[in-house]
Amino acid sequence: MFVTMKNTTRVVIFQMALLLICVSLSACFEVLEEVNLRKDGTGSMTITLNLSQSKSKVSSVLLLDSVNGHKVPSRNEMDRQMKEMTDKLRGMDGISQVTSRMDFNNYIATIGFSFDQVERLNQISQMIFDQLKLKDQRHISYSYIKAKGIFQKKYTAIPEISTGYGKLKKQDQAVFEQAMYTSIFRFPDAQIGTQSNKAAKVAPSKKAIMLQTPILSFINGTAHIDNQITIQ
Q1: DSSP labels for 181-198?
Q2: Do residues 13 and 109 make contact, with C-beta atoms less than 8 angstroms apart?
């Protein structure tokens, strides 16, 4: 469920996200997507799942075998899932410097990698959709026109998310009420000239832009994370 929700950024960390969220905690969590993009089209991405605000609840739940009918994963299982995803990333063309970290003291999971062109992010999204056995893989896409300095991210709502959410118990649905998705794009050797998303905030330096969206907006189909950014 949660894995399909994020998509985009979707990337690697969703395996742990699914394992932790499925324990049905009525708690806060944040998904953070960070992309550093250079003018030549190379860059890096980092995805972080942060449950630190709910770490006492997570610690308690991990002592149980199951909660609300959901099997509670062990630390070894979460480590194994993370390793499987990082191994897949390391085997992909154009992806390098793959790193991952599981902080079981604060319940923060992070995975990062470098890419040789923006379009590699689409291949990673496709890998995730393949693993989830979803038919339509065109819900999220990235593109970059180097000659014009135009970076674009497109997102289309996924009907399966709302359908799956409606089948959850109320206590399971409560998990997503305060959850947030934050996206940050940084341009270390350029400045932002224009951008098309009115909800996004451009840093005073014009070298970064941030967008925050409630996870529930992905569920109800109202999330607007599209953006076309021109750098100079």
Answers
A1: EEEEEE-TT--EEEE--T
A2: yes
How large is the C-alpha radius of gyration of the chain? Answer: 17
Reference 6, options 158, 130, 228, 165; nearest CA is 158
pLDDT means over runs of 10, the chain (232 residues): 36 39 53 94 92 72 66 77 86 94 86 94 75 56 95 85 76 76 96 97 98 88 92 96
Residue 33 contacts residue 62 (beta carbons within 8 Å): no
- To which residue do tokens 């990337």 refer? 11
What are the extents of the domains in the chain? 2-231
- Given a contact cutoff of 8 angstroms between Cβ atoms, the answer to whether 101 and 47 are in contact is no
Task: Give the C-alpha separation, 149 to 133, whole Å.
Answer: 34
Report whether 117 contacts 37 (CB < 8 A). Answer: no
Q: Name the DSSP class of 79.
A: H
Q: What is the pLDDT of residue 50?
A: 85
SS3 (DSSP) at 52: helix
What lies within 8 Å, CB to CB, of 69 at 6+ separation is none
- Look up residue 220 and give its two tokens: 């109800």
Q: Which helix (H) or strand (E) holds 109?
A: strand 108-115
Cβ neighbours of residue 151 under 8 Å, at least 6 residues apart?
Answer: 37, 118, 142, 143, 144, 185, 228, 229, 230, 231
